[in-house]
Design goal:
single chain, BirA Bifunctional Protein, domain 2, five-stranded antiparallel β-sheet, 14 helices
Length: about 375
Amino acid sequence: MILKQVTGYDFYPCLNYVLSKQDAVLLGGNMEGDTASELTQEFQLSVQQHYRLKAKTGTRPTTKAVYHATLSVPISQRLSDDTWQSITEDYLQQMEFDDNQYILVRHQDTQHDHVHIVASVLKLDGSTVNTSWNYYKGQAVVRQLELAYNLESVANSWEIDKAAPSTGQMQRFKNEQHLYENGFRDTPPAEPAMLQLQKLIDGAVKDCPSLPQLIDKLEKSSVTVRTRSDKDNNPTGISFCFEGVWFAGRQLGRAYSLPGLQKYRGVVLEDSIAKPEAEVQLLRTQKVAPIVAAYLKSINRAEYQGNNYAARWESNQLVLERSSQDEHRARLMKAAYIEGEWQPVEQSQLSNEDVSHFEKLIPIIQHLKKELSGEAENEMLDRT
């Protein structure tokens, strides 16, 4: 069984969503109303009780009172209305919603048989259900329900989806959340960076974007993304940086690795589609040209020939050739610096090995910039 759950502030939008869906059926609950407006008014009973209790104790009331959970079974299974009602009652009891208002609505708009539970986090005695650990607790509960109702088992979502922060991080967050909910802390605590990052990625992949679109969305949310590529320039790995902390995709959970983003999130890896040769050569030129230009500048020459490569300036164009014993050298690149970027004058013939070779020279060029001595120059000549 698959569980999704969120908490919110306003009952009406949530109720309107679950009740207005085509073929939505109000299966049960412990409330009298049957429309979003009627039920919103009825939910105010628990809200008012809660505010009265908080007024007596002089503590801050809970404003995030809406609990919305979705329970679904694999496509291969379909349950009766009575079974869904029984499962829901057991689920809420084990989640400690034992004195809370709730409704149960069944939807049939997807291939997965599923129901929606809308409940009040606020109990009828005015107290509050502690939802700090709901994600992990909910997964444990549905595993128990699978056994009890002979349902097809589904792996814990953190095994295929989200990895959990450390116990220490979650305990600190739980303690701070408890202080905030009881009025002993002015501001709500910040969730661990891992959880915040997972939520940002979840939001960015909702419409199944391409990998470049996903990266663009995340960078607008202050998340830095890096991808690793193979020798053919196809992406093979991904990592994310949030609040100064780097996470490999797999550290966040299997669904956040590059294969997981494709399988579980529907992300399309456009970069894995073979690029036209002209585009590949443009990218390689833009990597190699600035390195070659920087080297020529560091040795204060307009031309250089080494054991493997020869480079020279022709007017304002940079030429790179593969060294050869005869006079017919294979031209690898002819490029010009135009309007702030390198552009090939003719299609380049660079290989991935050429790119790797020149990228390895970057630290030596940086050294030469600092020490333009004959010894440093000879070191570079030997390496080239």
